[in-house]
Queue: 2 jobs
Job 1
Amino acid sequence: MAGSDFVIVILAAGKGTRLKSNLAKVLHRAGGRSLVEHVARACRPLGAKAMLAVVGHQAEDVAAVVEPLGAQVVLQQPQRGTGHALLVARGAIGQRAKYALVVPGDAPLVRTETLRTLVRAHQIGNAAATILTAQLTDPIGYGRIVRKQDGSVAAIVEQSALLDDQRDINEINSSIYCFTLEKLWPCLGKLRPENVHKELYLTDAIALLNQQGETVLAEVTPDPQEILGANARADLAEVDRIFRQRKRAALMDAGVTIQLPETVLIDPEVEVGADTVLEPFVQLLGKTRVGSGCTIRTGSVLNDTVVEENVTVKPYSIVSASHLGKGAQVGPFAHLRDGAQLRPGARVGNFVEVKKSVLGEGAKAMHLTYVGDAKIGSKTNIGAGTITCNYDGVRKNPTTIGKDVFVGSNTALIAPIRVGDRAYIAAGSTVTENIPVDALAIARGRQVNKPGWAAERRREIAAQARKASKPRPRSKTRAKPRPRQSSRRKPAPRRRPAVARRRLKLSRRR
Ligand code: UD1
Ligand code: CA
C-alpha cells in the first residue's frame, strides 16, 4: 500500500467473561477458524510494517495461532483494559511507524478491504484518530459515538456511562481505529480507571485527543455485519452463520449448486468445482477439495478429503483424510478414513468401512465390509461381509489382493496375507494362507447332508404326541390331589425323540 507507514495492533489478551468459558474468547471458533485467526488473516495482506498481537489469557495458545501468520506477540499481564493493552505494545512499536491500525481480536468478520479504506481515510483526513463506526438498529452494549457540530468525533461513551440524551445514539464504535502515534501516546498516559470495570479504556483517548485540540474522524462502514464483536455465545453463532453464508455465496458464484444452502456447512479453505451439486445437510470440512461435476448427497461429511471429478457420494457417508478418484462412488452409509484411496471408478457401498487402503481402478466393495491396511487390485470384487482381519492384538498387518480377484461373501482374510491376481475365494472362507495367481481357495468346514433325517424326526415327534394324548386308565382308589404347580418352576427339559438321539450319536462317531 502506498504510504504503508503503519503497524497493526491486534488486541487479543482479554478473557471474554460473557462467554462463560475456560477458553479465551479469541480462541473460540466461528466459520471454521478461531476468531483471532480470522482477524490476523484479514490484516496480513495490508502490508503493514509489523503486525503485533497483544496476548494475555492463554497467551501461548493465542501466540500459536497468530505467530505462523506473521504476528509478533506482546504479553499484557494483567489485563487492565484496551487502553492498557496499547500502552503495553508501545515498546514493541517503538519508532517503527507513524500510524497504528488497532483491531480487536474478537471482530472476525472485518474484511481486508475495509481496513485498507480506514487506513487511507486516516492518512488523507490528517486526523489524530479515525474510528471505524457503524449504524446499528440495536446498539446496546457498544460504545456510542458522540459527534460534534462539525461532524468530527467528540468522544466515545461506553454503554454503562451513557447519559440519558445519549441513549438513542445508534452510531457505535467498532473498536477498529487508526491512530497517529505521536498524538496518541500522551493521551494514553492520561487514562484513568474511572469506570465500572476499573480499567484503562482506549475509548477515553478520543475525548483526551479533543482536549489536546486534535481532530478525530469517523469512517462509517457500509456493512454493519462486518464489525460484529463476538462477546457472547449468541454472537458466536451469528458470526458463524455469516461466515458460512459468505462461503456458500462465493461457491455458488463459482458455479456450485447448493440445495437448501442454509443447511450446508463449508469450512473456509474448502474448494469445490463448477457443476458440483451439494445436497442439504452436507458438511465439507478442513482442506477438502471437490472437483467439478460431483454430487455430494444429503447428510455426508467430508473432512480433509480430495474428491476428483464426477464422483458421487451417496447419503450419510463419512469420509476423512481420503482420496476419491474420478468417477468413484461411495455410500450410502459408507465410512472412509485415514488414507482411504479409491482409484478412478472404484465403488464402495453401504455399511463399508475403508481405512488406510487402496481400492484399484473399478474395484468394488458394495456391502457390509471392513477393508483396513489393504491394497486391492483393479476390477477386484469384494463380496458382502468380507473382513480384512488386520489386527492380531499387537500390530496391524497388511492384506494384498491382486487384480480381477473374486472374494466370495463373508470371507475373513487373516493378515498378513496375499491373494494372487484372478484368484477366487469361496464364500465363507477364513483365509490364513497366501493364495496363488488363478487359484480357487476354499477354507471352510465341509458340509454333510443326511438324507431323510428331518422327515424321520418329524415322524417321531408326531408319534410321541399321539402317545401323550391317549386317555390314562382310571385308578380305582381316589387320586391324590396333584401338588399345585408353582409358576416359578422350571419346565422339564424337552427330550429329543429317540430316533433323533440315535442319529446324533451316530454322527458323533463318524
Ligand atoms: C470495546 C469498546 C467498545 C466497542 C466494542 C466493539 C472499550 C472500552 N470498549 O468494548 O466501545 O463498541 O469494543 O466491539 O474498548 N483486550 C485486551 N486487553 C484488555 C482488555 C481487552 O487485549 O485488557 C482485548 C480483548 O481480548 C478484545 C478487545 O480487546 O479482543 C476488546 O475488548 P472487549 O472486552 O471485548 O471490549 P468490549 O466490551 O467489546
Ligand atoms: Ca468485544
Job 2
Amino acid sequence: MKLTIVEYPNKRLKEKSKLVEKFDGELHKLLDAMYESMISSSGIGLAAIQIGYAKQILLLNIPDENDAQSRDALIEMINPVIIESLGETIYQEGCLSVPSFYEDINRFEKVSVNYQDRDGNTKNIEADGLLSIAIQHEIDHLNGILFIDKLSYSRRKKFEKEYKKMLKEKKISKNSTKE
Ligand code: Y12
Ligand code: CO
C-alpha cells in the first residue's frame, strides 16, 4: 500500500509525535507501508508524520558507495533520543514533504542515538556523515520541525515566495491536463 506524502504547508507537519507503546503487527504493517512510500518516492529518510501518523517512528535508507539503496541497509527507529552530539557540519538537505527545494542546513557532525527496533528492543547507534544528518532531519520531524524552519529570515522569505509560485504552477498544469 503506497501512502500519500503530506506536503508543506500542511499543518500536520507541525504536530509533535507521540511515543510508541505497542510493538505489534499493526506497527509492523505501518513500518512496511512507510518503507514502500519512501522508496517509491525516491526518499532516503521518512518520519511517520509525513504519511499522517503522529508517532515517534522514522526510517533511514542511506545509499551505498554506488548510490544504490538496499533493504539490508534499512534502519527503523522507534522512540529515538539523541544522547550525545559532537561537532558541526553543513549539508544541502531535501525533504519529501517540501518537494523540489534544497537548502544548506547546519547540523551536528556526529550523534549517538538510543532507540527501539520494531520488536521493542533497545538499541544504540553512533552515526556520522550522511546518516547523522538524516537522523537529525527525521528526529526534527518528530518534533514538528522542518529543515526550512532552520533558515534565516531572508532565506525563508525567498523560499516562501518560490514555493508559492511552484504550487501555483503545479495547480495550473494539473488543471490543464484534466481535459
Ligand atoms: C540528508 C538530508 C536530508 C535527509 C532527509 C531525507 N530526505 C529525503 O529523503 C529527500 C528526498 C527527495 C526526493 C526527491 O525525489 C527525487 O529525487 C526523484 C526530491 O525531488 C523532488 O522533490 C522533485 C526531493 C527530495 C537525508 C539526508
Ligand atoms: Co523531511
